[in-house]
């Protein structure tokens, strides 16, 4: 039976459905339609799995469905068995509502955050890194998947990586093995060659998800991709540009002070020249919002920076 179901945008009018089964023979098939228990369409996708020391993951399925109508309720079932799920596609134009919360973890506080989000009529969840706080204990990725399923199976969750996704052990385990296996994002759809950075368009917004934990200097693949992505933005069609990454660039908190400086030096000029409106970060377990800023100063053409890393994880809040 399908567990840990979550969905994400996968190019125009398409959605990726991701889920896990313990049955290795379960098909990567999604049946879906606009009325309950009556599926007019079927898509078959791909699957993967991974090992991490003694842990072997279940079969992780990723199946893209569509083309889908905008702002429409769909009913779907994964792998030809188990319960039916519902999702709503985002609207094609304003107004659109984003829920933004990073550094979630899986505590009672996380549940409280998710309950608050659930009470909002939001279209898309944006997560600027630090999801499960599994911290090498792989079964905690499974419990996180179950915790977020009620929300993440109903609205697209668009995520980028934080330090807690890395989980590398020199000479033994690569970085981001679990994260990349489980939380596949539309990087191929946005001409990126890495799941660690990508972009997507939704309802008048071009959203760019950057990676704080992969190379970002001028000669890096990420920088090159970003430089190629920005000129493609059509401000008539998507007048807003928003950017998410994990480590904040404008941070007055004592926690993680200065950690974003190198990435900011490398990438802020490019994003400023493109007229980015808002940048969201996590990492610091607090809320902070800047004026419009650029190059460390107030600037009427700069972006507003918002840190929203108080999602509820077990490490607690950054008070200073
Ligand atoms: Fe973090």
Descriptive account of the structure:
- It is a single chain.
- By secondary structure, this protein is of the alpha/beta class.
- Helices cover 17% and strands 29% of the residues.
- The chain is built from 5 helices and 20 strands.
- β16, α5 and β17 (278-281) form a beta-alpha-beta unit.
- The radius of gyration is 19 Å and the shape is globular.
- The model has no long low-confidence stretch (mean pLDDT 97).
- Bound molecules: fe (ii) ion (FE2).
The amount of helix comes to 10-25%
Please identify the top-level CATH class of the domain at 90-308. Alpha Beta
| Counted beta strands | 20
Instruction: Give the strand order, joined by hyphens, for the main sheet.
Output: 14-15-16-17-20-18-19
Could you give a quick summary of the protein structure above?
The chain has 320 residues and is of the alpha/beta class.
Sequence-ordered SSE layout with sheet pairings:
Layout: E1 3-9, E2 15-21, E3 29-33, E4 41-44, E5 46-48, E6 51-52, E7 55-56, E8 59-65, E9 73-78, E10 85-88, E11 98-100, H1 108-119, E12 124-127, H2 139-152, E13 157-159, H3 177-182, E14 198-202, E15 205-209, H4 221-229, E16 240-244, H5 261-273, E17 278-281, E18 287-294, E19 297-298, E20 303-308
Parallel strand pairs: 11-12, 12-13, 15-16, 16-17, 17-20
Antiparallel strand pairs: 1-2, 2-8, 3-4, 3-9, 5-8, 6-7, 9-10, 14-15, 18-19, 18-20
Fe (ii) ion is lined by residues 103, 130, 162-164, 246, 283.
EC number: 3.1.3.2
Organism: Rehmannia glutinosa (Chinese foxglove)
InterPro entries: Calcineurin-like_PHP, Metallo-depent_PP-like, MPP_PAP, PAPs-like, PAPs_N, Purple_acid_Pase-like_N
